């Protein structure tokens, strides 16, 4: 696993604000650190591109990108891009490679272009799913926000936190949910197993899906971020091979990433 830290530049209006950072004793280690001047393209080049090339060339290879950070730290910016850039116009004006676009549109378009250049467009199918986890429930962002069963959902959603007496850990130190939270139904499958899969055949399909996800997510403005996403979002890209009879090859399924 590679851990990368990306520092966001100051937003307009906050450049001259005084910020006091308390002395922190703990040290965190990262494999790569990108400063505030490092542009999207360079972050993609350093982090995503190697994974993407392995995904495209090594059978069975899959990868996950997880963007983690406090509100306003730039997760959506890194995964999707700055607000308003995911348009057909941007795509055409850039000659098919908008430099500000984030990981998801970049990865999907690179996959489509790679299949095209290798003459494999008709022998492969690229599909995407997108769900958000909001208030401990999962919703399908590509299917009218239909509720998606949470696999292994034996933990019931609860707004109340356990008090100190109910917190228990197993022998590995892993937190155990209180018994009263446990339901009886355990749903099988992968984390987004029943979400609608949408075929991505052209770069404009990618633009449409990315915009739909951006516009459908639960979001609201607060002091630190005017377009703050109030949920976690998970997206997968999978590539399936189609054989001479037009059948999808289950063995070639390659789930890709989540965030
Ligand atoms: N590297 C960057 N360069 C320029 N602007 C950035 C960068 N990172 C973030 N921003 C801008 O900062 C603002 C907040 O970023 P963003 O919405 O991506 O945060 P977030 O981590 O997704 O927040 P939340 O968890 O609240 O959804 C946005 O206007 C975004 O475009």
Automatic annotation (TrEMBL):
Record keywords: Nucleotide-binding included?
yes
- Which InterPro entries does the UniProt entry name for this protein? Kinesin-like_fam, Kinesin_motor_dom, Kinesin_motor_dom_sf, P-loop_NTPase
Which family does this protein fall into? Belongs to the TRAFAC class myosin-kinesin ATPase superfamily. Kinesin family.
User: Which named protein is this?
Assistant: Kinesin motor domain-containing protein
Biased composition, class Polar residues, residue ranges: 156-174
In this chain, ATP is annotated as bound at 69-76
Q: Which UniProt keywords apply?
A: ATP-binding, Motor protein, Nucleotide-binding
Which part of the chain is the Kinesin motor domain?
1-259
Q: Where is this region: Disordered?
A: 151-174
């Amino acid at each position: 696993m590679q851990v990368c830290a990306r520092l966001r530049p100051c937003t307009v209006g906050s450049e001259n604000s005084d910020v006091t950072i308390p002395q922190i004793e703990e040290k965190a280690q990262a494999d790569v650190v990108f400063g505030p001047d490092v542009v999207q393209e360079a972050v993609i080049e350093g982090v995503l591109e190697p994974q993407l090339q392995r995904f495209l060339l090594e059978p069975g290879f899959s990868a996950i990108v997880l963007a983690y950070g406090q509100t306003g730290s730039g997760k959506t910016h890194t995964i999707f891009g700055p607000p308003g850039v995911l348009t057909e116009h941007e795509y055409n004006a850039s000659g098919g490679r908008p430099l500000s676009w984030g990981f998801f549109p970049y990865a999907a378009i690179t996959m489509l272009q790679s299949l095209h250049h290798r003459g494999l467009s008709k022998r492969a199918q690229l599909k995407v799913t997108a769900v958000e986890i909001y208030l401990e429930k999962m919703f399908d962002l590509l299917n009218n926000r239909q509720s998606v069963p949470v696999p292994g959902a034996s933990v019931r959603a609860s707004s109340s936190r356990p008090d100190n007496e109910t917190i228990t850990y197993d022998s590995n130190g892993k937190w155990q949910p209180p018994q009263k939270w446990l339901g009886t139904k355990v749903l099988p499958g992968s984390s987004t197993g029943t979400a609608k899969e949408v075929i991505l055949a052209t770069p404009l399909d990618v633009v449409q899906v990315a915009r739909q996800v951006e516009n459908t997510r639960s979001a609201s403005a607060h002091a630190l971020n005017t377009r703050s996403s109030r949920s976690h979002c998970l997206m997968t890209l999978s590539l399936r091979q189609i054989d001479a009879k037009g059948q999808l090859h289950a063995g070639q399924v390659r789930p890709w990433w989540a965030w």
